[in-house]
Amino acid sequence: MKKTDILTPIGITLGFIMISFGIIMNSGSFTGFIAFVDISSVVIVLGGVMAAILINFNVNQVKLTGRVLKESFNQNQYNLEDLIELFERLSERARREGLLALENEIENVEDSFIKKGVLLAIDGIEPEVIQDIMTAEITAMEDRHSKGRQIIEKAGEYAPAWGMIGTLIGLVLMLNDLNDPSTLGPQMALALLTTLYGSVMANLVFLPMASKLESKTDEEVFMKQIVIEGVIGVQSGQNPRILKEKLSAFLSDDMRNRRAVEGNGAMEGVANEAS
Fold first, then answer.
1. Residue 266: what pLDDT?
2. Are 224 and 71 spatial neighbours (Cβ–Cβ below 8 Å)?
3. Whole-number pLDDT of residue 270
4. How do the domains of the chain map onto residue ranges?
5. Strand, coil or helix: what is 98?
6. What is the chain's alpha carbon radius of gyration, rounded to the nearest angstrom?
7. What is the pLDDT of residue 256?
8. Is the Cβ–Cβ distance between 191 and 35 less than 8 Å?
9. How far apart are CA 212 and CA 190, in angstroms?
10. Residue 183: predicted pLDDT
11. 64 C-beta neighbours (distance < 10 Å), count
12. Nearest-CA neighbor of 153 among 58, 69, 41?
């Protein structure tokens, strides 16, 4: 399940607000902000980045750009504790009723990776083969994510360069018209805008997005590795409690402490009822 990751738009918006705030405070008025707006500089930076992307990547990779950008604004909903409880439940039912009984159990599971692993276990595939198949899928997923992320990373590399190109264009035009010294200051400021735009797009948009996509991939790989351990445990008939403890090793210290407190609370409740 995915939901909107509000931190990405909040971060980008906050960055532009801080830049705008700095401009307005240092210029003394809102009119000073107008001096930092130049459409031709925007066109040079964004158009140049787009042109470089088209040269650097093939058609299929470029088509992924929209999907990759959209993924930056989505958040995968992974709950490690729920995942452990799921495999504990699957293990209990498999030991009680056999692996075939798990077909009904996973009908409501949305994650296709979990379904695939459990179905392989039901089919009687050897644990080593299941691990190889599912690991290969993880590797393929990492490769797909990496290729999509490369587009955003390259955009972050190209944006400052195209900003500098725009500045050089502005400087050449300025030096060709030195008859009026009073125009040198405004023309120089205008020439530097493309460098500003390129740096902002690279360090506020493209590179942070690429880093977020990389961290999301790492998180997804981590969860899928837990799924593999769970599937192998269910398939090999591990004791549900042992499997739960094994998978709980992936929990953070805070999660383990919270589970321990909840477990102690539940035991106290049972004791009170018995008394």
1. 43
2. no
3. 38
4. 2-80+128-263
5. coil
6. 28
7. 61
8. no
9. 33
10. 67
11. 17
12. 69
